[in-house]
Amino acid sequence: MATEFGVWLREQRMKCGLSSRELARQAGVSATYVSRLETLNEKCVPSAPTMKRLAAALNVDEQTGLAAAGRVPVDIVNWLLEAPESWTRLQRIIDQGVSIDDVVRVYQSTSHG
Hints:
434 Repressor (Amino-terminal Domain); 2 domains; 8 helices; about 70% helix; about 0% strand
């Protein structure tokens, strides 16, 4: 997941015309950390608060950034907590190979989003 996230992060950064140093400055992290996110293995995945700042610096939706980082967006977690049977449904969906990105898109396209 992090390798895919790293590719996504680099692509988003380049679309914005930002250097890794400038992205780091805007997101309040070090340039070394941005480099690690873009190049290292699954051990380097940003926390939700850090991803929120990175998403803001990249002008992307926070939920999209969280999904790209492999984090489940807060509104989906809340939805799952409100309806415990949803955990079982979500697991079945994931077991069928549906990505968390697709789950987020479907969720947001309903009255929840």
